[in-house]
Amino acid sequence: MKILIVEDEFNLADVVASRLRKEKYSVDIALDGEEGLDNALTNIYDLIILDVMLPKLNGFEVLKEIKRNKIEAKVIMLTAKSQIEDKLNGFEEGANDYITKPFHIEEVVARVNVWLRSDNPHIEKDYIEAGDIRLNKKTSNLLCITTNESIDIICKEYLLLEFLMQNQNQIVSKEKIYEKVWGFDNESESNNLEAYISFVRKKIKAIGSKANIKALRGLGYKLEV
Known about the structure:
Layout: E1 2-6, H1 10-22, E2 26-30, H2 33-40, E3 47-51, H3 59-68, E4 74-79, H4 84-93, E5 97-100, H5 105-117, E6 127-130, E7 133-136, E8 141-144, E9 150-152, H6 155-166, H7 174-182, H8 187-190, H9 193-206, E10 212-216, E11 220-224
Parallel strand pairs: 1-2, 1-3, 3-4, 4-5
Antiparallel strand pairs: 6-7, 7-8, 8-9, 10-11
């Protein structure tokens, strides 16, 4: 699942992003309100962590535009302000939650997990299943339930397979895969999508699974289970 952090303090944003990546989330960072809004309007994120005190556009302005454009992502406001009026303002504009600085990093992780779990049944478990394959979210281990064979799958391979499993038996375009797995970073690496698809296919085959990633010319890919 994909998260956007809009925070002008880069060191803070980087710490939060690094911790969330350990939870197997894909995370992008925006350092001002305008950049954050541009990213949010792509509608590729499941959750947005949004600071209030931002350059160019403040968090409330960004939130208002997010809701006006019917962006579906959950929004957690992040700010040094603790006044009840600010919190009420955020909730009235459509924020889902509010965390006040200074905070403990594990509180952020817990809040993120709670909000994403409420909409995604896969988050309730430590694994996601599709057909006869099971992907463990904590260990990055891919298991074939039928053969009981397993193999480790890491980094972009993990994110790619997770996204395909979440959309099993559905056609997913290359553009959507780029957005969900690579985001706005590392364009040269994302151009190797076919290579990553090949790596994942080989690992699925190696454990004896019947699952198959099918390429559909001009449309994208589909995980058939």
